[in-house]
Amino acid sequence: xxxxxxxxxxxxxxxxxxxxxxxxxxxxxxxxxxxxxxxxxxxxxxxxxxxxxxxxxxxxxxxxxxxxxxxxxxxxxxxxxxxxxxxxxxxxxxxxxxxxxxxxxxxxxxxxxxxxxxxxxxxxxxxxxxxxxxxxxxxxxxxxxxxxxxxxxxxxxxxxxxxxxxxxxxxxxxxxxxxxxxxxxxxxxxxxxxxxxxxxxxxxxxxxxxxxxxxxxxxxxxxxxxxxxxxxxxxxxxxxxxxxxxxxxxxxxxxxxxxxxxxxxxxxxxxxxxxxxxxxxxxxxxxxxx
Length: 290
Description:
The protein is an alpha/beta fold. Helix content is 39%, strand content 17%.
């Protein structure tokens, strides 16, 4: 019996992903070979990594303590599974910069302009930590462009209710904000077993937001009422040892979503996609499969 082209391509994608997953396990990271380039958009020179291809698109939005490089464990693996993967440095972070005298605008407007430039009608959107703030903001502003939404290790900057305020008060760790960033964001298990990974994470963190860089704005404040407007499927990912944004805090805003899945990743801190790339990628791919 002759195998049709479509199933055969799917088999090849799965084989490629399995090989990439093995590489991730062996090295702790599946490094993307894809090079980035600058895209000129209104008011900004945006650095964008783009794997290209004709597959379904995934747009990755990085945390405040990261750049597009923080997705080293995702870009190659997701591309090997058949997706076109796009990862920009947000304006004022990494290699992206605002043009001289340019007005700071909501990041979602820059993302919308990027989607137009790349001729992306609809795509899957993944945001981690602060990247989740902007992913949520975009999905609420332009829901027609977002197929599925993934929000990872993020509090979304949501204006919480009394229950949320009380949780944060009870869960607060004295002096936490003064701890080194790798202690706040990476789990003790990861730091103990992966000193090379911690060193690489710190290299990215140090280049993430230059001193005095303007921070992108939200289009509208992120609120629980805004969460309730989302209609597309949403995957919420949390690390079970995340001290920066505890899973309990994430569950409090997740309950306001209408169409959601929640997944807890074991032994992962705030940098869950960095610490547990295989588990993160599998959760995303399972969620995005037709």
